[in-house]
Specification:
- There is one protein chain.
- This protein has about 150 residues and is of the alpha/beta class.
- The protein folds into two domains: about 50 residues, Urease, subunit C, domain 1; about 90 residues, Diaminopimelate Epimerase, Chain A, domain 1, CATH 3.10.310.
- About 20% of the residues lie in helices and about 30% in strands.
- Strand 9, helix 3 and strand 10 form a beta-alpha-beta unit.
């Protein structure tokens, strides 16, 4: 890993003795020193930009993760037959009329690669509304029962 000096920045240390410094040196992916440059390595002028240590954004939606713990995980499911088995299993644990939610289906993994039809879900579960979101979250797959309940609102 390349060593690097960051200079002319607003570097917040979270250290009460040195709350903010203007330069930081990094070696082997770790902080090597503050306000002490490593000679002979690349130096990047931050031009006043702020550096906040330990702040990592992995673009994680914690709320959605919690909601999905109770949903059918359809990620990587390669056939409609597998999805049918998952729905049938879920139906043994829910009451008639209770929603069945799921996420992650991807028709590109299926033999036909066609977008799914509501008729498929209607046959498996005519009494429980089903709402599944696609792997990218930009499409939904629902049955007729779900449509009827949503239009009644």
């Amino acid at each position: 890993m390349e060593s690097l000096n960051l200079i002319n920045g607003n570097i917040i240390t979270l250290d009460s003795a040195n709350p903010a410094v203007s330069s930081i040196s990094i070696s082997n992916g770790k902080i090597n020193g503050i306000n002490q440059l490593i000679k002979g390595v690349k130096t990047l002028d931050l031009k006043g930009a702020t550096v906040i240590p330990g702040f990592i954004d992995a673009h994680f939606h914690l709320k959605n993760y919690g909601k999905r713990l109770e949903q059918l995980n359809l990620k990587g499911v390669c056939s409609l037959k597998e999805i049918e088995k998952l729905i049938q299993s879920k139906l043994t644990h829910v009451q008639k009329g209770e929603w069945i939610l799921g996420f992650g289906w991807d028709q590109n993994l299926w033999a036909t690669k066609e977008f799914p039809k509501s008729e498929f879900l209607n046959t498996i579960s005519p009494h429980n509304p089903i709402y599944f979101t696609r792997i990218d979250g930009h499409s939904s797959w629902v049955n007729q029962r779900a449509i009827l309940l949503m239009t009644a609102l």
